[in-house]
Amino acid sequence: MNVIIYLLPLLAIILLSMPLIPVYRGVTTGVKAKRAVIFNIAAFFGVCLIAILLPFGGLLSAAETANAAAAAGSSAGLGYLAAALVTSVSCIGAGIAVAAAAPAAIGAFSEDPKAFGKALIFVALGEGIALYGLLISILILNKI
After folding, report:
1. Is the separation of the CB atoms in 51 and 9 below 8 Å?
2. CB 90 within 8 A of CB 132
3. Alpha-carbon Rg of the chain, whole angstroms?
4. What percent of the residues of the chain are helix, what percent strand, and what percent coil, each to the nearest 5?
5. pLDDT classification of 132: cutoffs 50, 70, 90
């Protein structure tokens, strides 16, 4: 019984990551793309099935998880983990956005010096993602 409690969430994580496999392989057209769509639909319905079976199977009840969380004192730890994840993922996203926008802005500025203001706006929008993540992590830390 305890093994099922750990395997079902692991299965849900695997099913949620399944749509990334065709993206990683670079599948865009043809028969492989049709298989990728079927792959994504199967993963979606698999996650839906697990979400339906967990509460009805009696494997996890809200009272048990609340008591276990209160006993372990993990709510503060999960809050710190959430704040760290928000900050790190938003900074990675901002880095990807700036890595794409900054070279294009430099290229546009080298061809037309009047385009500097417009190009700078796109680079600043990418940096805004990191600021939003930092703001959300500060709000999370204030609730702990």
Report:
1. no
2. yes
3. 22
4. 90, 0, 10
5. very high
**pTM for this one?**
0.49
Q: Distance from first CA to last CA of the chain, Å, rounded?
A: 33
Residue, of 135 and 6, whose pLDDT is higher: 135
Which residue ranges make up each domain of the chain?
1-60, 73-144
Kindly list the distances between the CA atom of residue 91 and the CA atoms of 82, 87, 98, in Å, as whole numbers in the listed order.
14, 6, 10
DSSP state at residue 19: T
Write down the pLDDT at residue 64.
Answer: 60
Share of the chain above pLDDT 90, in %: 9
Q: Which fold has domain 73-144?
A: F1FO ATP Synthase (1.20.20)
